[in-house]
Amino acid sequence: MEAVVSDRSDRSVSIANAVGNGALATVAALTLAITVLATVAGNGASTNDSRSIEPTQIWTHPN
């Protein structure tokens, strides 16, 4: 019985570790993906904003 109990506890611990590592890896991957998407979206928005702002500044300053 003791061997079976210890075997079960070892299995449950290893399963818990595997699930925990999988969850951490998933969270890390999602965080990285969101960060990359937000960075790309931020760069796109900033470049589009600068393109939309610069012509108005070029046209308004000479006038």
From TrEMBL:
Polar residues composition-biased segments: 44-63
Keywords, alphabetical: Membrane, Transmembrane, Transmembrane helix
Record's keyword annotation contains Transmembrane helix: yes
Keyword Transmembrane helix found: yes
Annotated transmembrane regions: 20-41
Residues covered by region (Disordered): 43-63
Stated name of the protein: Uncharacterized protein
The organism's taxonomic lineage, starting at the top: Bacteria, Bacillati, Cyanobacteriota, Cyanophyceae, Gomontiellales
